[in-house]
Write a structure and sequence with these properties.
- By secondary structure, this protein is mainly alpha-helical.
- The chain has one domain: MetI-like (MetI-like fold), CATH 1.10.3720.
- It contains 11 helices and no strands.
């Protein structure tokens, strides 16, 4: 029991004294996941709105595919990404393996289907009168889509946050494509696993606390924004 108490006290010491290694690890996580989320949000929301408002052959199959990809295992994404980015892979000459960019690509693949599927559901749940009113007022197709997206903005924002939660706490892609290189690709989740394996609980607990605080803060901001 003492090692747990010592780990917790050591964790708060590292946080309060802004340990340089701790800050580097957190920054890698924020930079990688933030960049991946930015592009995943653009692509995912665009796909969700297009599929949700469109009528075309194969729509149901596409919806099923998006819903299936929401549960895509991180290790599978890491495995496929490794196969493409390794030296023998199709994109091996780019030298992306074991870099933050490889991690961004993997996290983008994980987050996009979640954002797309939840955005699609948000658009489809909108009252049809919004679309009919926009058309009655002479809105173009693009203006109609924008109006529906505006009305569904909180649900779409929740979809983006769900995508962030999926990638910020994942470990499969980060470890397989990033390699857990200290000061370069080591992020919160891979550092927690590494430090725990060494028996160094203080840094692992500190990173776990920061991970939970960031997740709590983002969800709190969503709730505040939604009800104001």
């Amino acid at each position: 029991m003492d090692y747990i108490l010592n780990g917790i006290s050591g964790a708060f010491y590292l946080i309060l004294h802004r340990d340089p290694e701790l800050l580097r690890i957190v920054w890698v996580s924020i930079r990688v996941s933030g960049t991946a989320l930015f592009f995943a949000a653009i692509v995912g929301v665009a796909i969700g709105v297009r599929v949700g408002m469109g009528t075309f052959r194969g729509k149901r199959a596409l919806v099923i595919l998006l819903n299936t990809l929401m549960a895509l295992p991180t290790v599978v994404v890491g495995l496929v990404g490794y196969a493409f980015l390794s030296r023998r892979g199709l994109l091996g000459d780019w030298g992306l393996l074991y870099t933050p960019y490889a991690m961004m690509i993997g996290q983008f693949v994980l987050a996009t289907p979640i954002i797309a599927s939840l955005s699609l559901a948000a658009v489809q749940a909108m009252d049809r009168r919004v679309s009919l009113t926009a058309l009655t007022l002479g809105a173009s197709k693009r203006q109609k889509k924008w109006k529906i997206l505006t009305e569904a903005r909180f649900a779409v924002l929740a979809a983006v946050i769900a995508g962030f939660g999926r990638i910020f706490a994942e470990i499969g892609v980060s470890s397989m494509l990033g390699g857990n290189i200290q000061g370069y690709t080591r992020n919160i989740t891979t550092a927690i696993a590494y430090e725990t394996g060494k028996g160094e609980f203080a840094l692992g607990i500190a990173l776990g606390i920061i991970l939970l605080v960031i997740a709590l803060g983002i969800n709190a901001l969503l709730q505040i924004r939604q009800y104001n």
